[in-house]
Amino acid sequence: MYFKFLILKTNIKYNSNINEKNTLFFQNEAVFLFLNDNLANEGYFAIGKKEELEILNHDLSSFDALDNFINIKNKWKFGFLTYDLKNSIEKLESNNKDNLDFPLLYFFIPNTLLRYKNGEFSLIYGNPSYIKEAKEFTTPQHQTLNLNLKPRLNKDEYLSHIHSIKKEIKQGNIYEANFCYEFYETNKAIDPFDVYHNLMPLTNAPFSSFGKFGDKYVISASPERFLKKTGNKLISEPIKGTSKRGRNEKEDLELKQALKSNKKERSENIMIVDLVRNDLSKIAKYDSVKVEELCEIYSFETVHQMISKITCEIDKNISFSDLLKATYPMGSMTGAPKISTMKIIEREEQTKRGLYSGSIGYVSPDNDFDFNVIIRTFLYNEANNYISAMVGGAITDKSNPEEEYKETLIKIEALLKAINNE
What are the residue ranges in the chain where pLDDT is below 70? Predict the structure, then answer.
């Protein structure tokens, strides 16, 4: 299952033993995160914050502060990394418009931690009275929402960007790029809990999450794992290749088989597998990088996905930040070669990704961890009533721009249904 330390002249804040206001409902806590594996029917409720690490912008001491926080002994840590952490790893920039304003990264040690498994709740530590409220939270109650997210790009504009990217590919500058665009609405207050409850039955994704971080929310139905650590083993499971579900069993099986045999989709997936193998080799023990699954098809509520699984063994002394520097951002959301592609992505996209195509997850007391890929996700800034859902796909020399556009609509479909009452 996956899913303010103050330094002079920096943007790092760290507080210890923060006094939280007592509330009757954990929804009113300043910080709350539910990591939900719908397929395994298990997850974690991380409620309130004892300690937190918030990094607003990159600073030379950012990774040191992150490692210091992750290495606090015998504590559970939960949090997120935004896509723009790339600028701290490579000489890159993020200058596109940002209406969500998430920090660069955020981690916290919860006041109360609950485990959820097959409908039962157990207290790891903290306030046992939250178990009753957690049960209420996990009982979906469909709400009528009247939101109408509009695309940042119309179809012709989208196709123009795809042609531009394909030109870069034909010139030999890159092999594959993940291009994304935004659906959004402004000046519309929402109840994020209602959105979450509407979305979950439509997706049942294994790396779902609901997070409240002050006035910012993440409502995710992600099917993808970024990186998991168990002991000295790392696991990465990139997704590349998507097909819609069929209207009946026969059509569904035909679509699944068509995806499995699709040469273009397999090519996209294998390119990212090679990229992930290269990333992991930077920190792996010699000859330990393995491809355990290649281009396997997994079925979710609304889509079939092509997923591969790459693993390696690492030395126990490798730091959390060293792992990020080798592997982040995830290849499935960038392309190959990674650095060149990220520069082109920045030029072609209209919106700063922020938390989208970043990662959210946990680190256990023994420093095992599991982090997802933030896709199929709503991001909401309550302060300015801005809601965003980005969507994208991999572009290669074999990409048909019209088909790529259709694929983005398949991926965004469940999210739009959750809020448009379709």
Answer: 1-27, 421-422
